[in-house]
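Quarterly update from the structural biology core.
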Amino acid sequence: MPSQIYQLGFIGAGKLAGSVIRGLVRAKFCPPGEIIASEPNEQTRAALEREAGTVLTTENAEVAEKANLVFVGVKPGMVLGVLGEIASGLENKLVISLAGGVRISNMEKVANARFMRALTNTPSAICRAATGIARGNRTTNEDVDLAKKIFGAIGVVVEVAESQIDIVTALSGSGPAFVYTIIDALAKGGAKLGLADDVSTPLAIQTVLGAAELMRETKMSAEDLVKMVVTPSGTTAAGLAVMEKMKTSESLIAAVEAATRRGQEMAKENA
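Predicted structure, tokenized:
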């Protein structure tokens, strides 16, 4: 491994961290060779090296020592243990945890680094991330500006208090799975009534994509956009009546609430 200093380092390069890496390379945030990531899984390393061209290693300590900024992308239950093992290499560095359910105060007890948290999602791989960041007791304004620059390169980023980060985890982190479930249900509805899968699925995907883009660009409320589609006694009104009867909105709100509660429980488990 060349004895150089890397701009960005990742401890763990699995599903979420790997998506962030791919997004940063896609956005040309920095040259791929300025990103180093440690990952124990050989297949994951090979795929990331092939797709993103970043530097891969199996040693967490190497990333901690050689990267200016370190992202922690391991599973929540592993975060504090991993930080303890590489604490000497993180001295006075900016460290951004991508894990849900691990509080900054607990990370600050393990290593003398400037900790932040960033809760993002897998669409970061295509620069369509929704990210919430939270600062810690040692975080500087320059650290926050840098975090916003990094995550702004791969999507939308907002700063929240850490007390709200579990909500961001539920809404943005878990949210894609909720949306995929909706897309799948729409496609299955079309297929049930006679459309071929290769017709129904692309229509469902584009419908959700188009609706989201229209809402983003026009900045109209969901209520007003619904009114644009509905005509009295029409097809949309009939469908919405069934959704209301089956409490579709309430179930999605409850899903966000349940995911948030789980994040809060994880924080207690990983204290």
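The chain has twelve helices and eight strands.
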